[in-house]
Amino acid sequence: MYKHLIFPILSKFDPEFIHYFTMGCLRTIYRLPGGKAILRLLFDYSHPSLETEFAGIKFKNPVGLAAGFDKNGRWIDELATLGFGFVEVGTVTPKAQDGNPKPRLFRLKPDQALINRMGFNNDGIDALVENLKKRKSSIVVGGNLGKNKITDNSLAVRDYLITFKALRNWVDYFVVNVSSPNTPGLRELQEKGPLLEILNALQKENGPNGKPIFLKIAPDLSYEQLDDIIEIIQESGIAGIIATNTTLSRANLKSKNVEEIGAGGLSGKPLKERSTEVIRYIKGKSEIPVIGVGGIHTPEDAEEKFSAGASLIQVYSGFIYEGPGLIKRINKSLVR
């Protein structure tokens, strides 16, 4: 029903407007008498075999929502009724920032993909913390950390430490985002020197009994760069990798308006194979735990990520194109 009736209607409107409109509708349903129970009945699915322990955290199932969907932690309780095992909020920066000029989010329907150049638009760390304090759900929550656009790369460590310290008591795990293509110069922080500086500073602040820290990496890294990433993870001692962020590649797209759209990170089905390749490469060279994300639109796509070595997965574009029923379908497939 969603894919053939609801999505075709929603896709006639601006993607960013529809994002806030649909989440407003979800919140309205959630707050109606019996609304929460109806949402859980429709979309939630639980089974003992889905319960997963990863990085010392217990997840009710291994299917999560990737960062970028709920940047400010406004809808965690509502999203928890849709069957997710965990939700990642952010990317958050120390200070609020507007992000890049609109329009900045685009659908590529023939490719079942999205291009975004949001630019870390968010209300800042203080607003996120206040929203996290209000949440009632016990769902596992991760915090995705970034730096402000105006912060020079030489001072990036400061920004990551600010957001880390502020979120310490309010999230279950952390993600260092140095791989978004939409903040100028950010991907330069994936180089060995600056990345080790950031991760070592966070690990020192975290302490020996701290919460898991993951690194989110780009799919556009060469195998030589991935070898460096593996070495950096092992040297810093952080918990693992999230593979992958959006890609700058525009290879083999069917959509005709790609050049007109311009810059931005591509997500969705075209990313599926590369993100799986990156997961398989990392797991073939190391024992580093991996959370897989990129192009998951079906239960079969999810199975590919797990077969490649991912312990958990996250969805984003697939959730938009396939609807909230996708999470239930994946979890039922995993039980079968």
TrEMBL record:
Annotated positions binding substrate: 71, 116-120, 177, 182, 245-246
Gene3D superfamilies: Aldolase class I
Membrane topology: Peripheral membrane protein
GO biological process: 'de novo' pyrimidine nucleobase biosynthetic process; 'de novo' UMP biosynthetic process
Location of the protein in the cell: Cell membrane; Membrane
Keywords: Cell membrane, Flavoprotein, FMN, Membrane, Oxidoreductase, Pyrimidine biosynthesis
Main location: membrane
InterPro entries membership: Aldolase_TIM, DHO_dehydrogenase, Dihydroorotate_DH_1_2, Dihydroorotate_DH_2, Dihydroorotate_DH_cat, Dihydroorotate_DH_CS
Cofactor details (free text): Binds 1 FMN per subunit.
Keyword Lipid biosynthesis: no
Active-site residues (renumbered): 180 (nucleophile)
Domain of life, source organism: Bacteria
EC primary class: oxidoreductase
GO MF, one example: dihydroorotate dehydrogenase (quinone) activity
Dihydroorotate dehydrogenase catalytic domain span: 50-334
GO CC, any one term: cytoplasm
Catalytic activity as recorded in UniProt: (S)-dihydroorotate + a quinone = orotate + a quinol
Subunit field text: Monomer.
Family from the record: Belongs to the dihydroorotate dehydrogenase family. Type 2 subfamily.
UniProt protein name: Dihydroorotate dehydrogenase (quinone)
Species this chain originates from: Leadbetterella byssophila (strain DSM 17132 / JCM 16389 / KACC 11308 / NBRC 106382 / 4M15)
